[in-house]
Amino acid sequence: MKALLIVDVQNDFCTGGTLAVPEGEKVVPVINGILNRFKVIVASKDWHPAGSRHFEKWPVHCVQDTYGAAFYPQLDDEKIQKTFLKGTDEKNDGYSAFDATSDNLERFLKENKVNDLYVCGLATDYCVLASALDARKKGFNVFVVEDAVKGVDAKAGDSERAIIQMKHNGIVFMDSGLVPLD
């Protein structure tokens, strides 16, 4: 069984957001276009408390229960079966969807007999990277949908280095047109 993990496609990471990923919203039509290829669809959300230490490194973003923390409006979130909230306490950065405190992503995927995890969303060089690497460490076959991810590139080349790191760890990159049907 395969599943799709949509990482942090939230208002604050798209144009006009407080930590906008350049062209972040451009992943949305690609993601919406592959949703019907999956029976299991999950998502993660940054869900930071207002006083998070995370904001010592980053601009304030995705504060719990705010517009910025909501899914980007054009994302077809009706098909998401479960959303995993991460970065929910003041001391946890919560880059990986597997760091979610709202529920256990690994357990959910295993209960649904998922072996192959397809990852898309924002940002290639942070939360997508951390989630994909954690999924691989937990024994999942991991595929990143390359045209459905965008990076922050806080330092020039961060996304490119993240892709190299993921490939070096056995993660496969593919175009959305090659994602198989269930």
Helix content: 10-25%
Strand-pairing-aware structural class: alpha/beta
CATH fold name, please?
Answer: Rossmann fold
Question: What would CATH call the homologous superfamily?
Answer: Isochorismatase-like
Measure the end-to-end span. 7 Å
Radius of gyration: 15 Å
Would you tell me the overall average pLDDT? Answer: 96
Number of H- or I-type helical stretches: 4
Key terms for this structure?
21% strand, 182 residues, globular, 6-stranded parallel β-sheet, 4 helices, alpha/beta, Rossmann fold, 22% helix
Provide a descriptive summary of the structure in words:
The protein is an alpha/beta fold. The chain has a single domain (2-178), classed as Isochorismatase-like (Rossmann fold), CATH 3.40.50.850. Helices cover 22% and strands 21% of the residues. It is built from 4 helices and 6 strands. It has a 6-stranded parallel β-sheet with strand order 3-2-1-4-5-6. Helix 3 runs parallel beside helix 4 (158-168). It starts with a strand and ends in an 8-residue tail after the last strand. The model has no long low-confidence stretch (mean pLDDT 96).
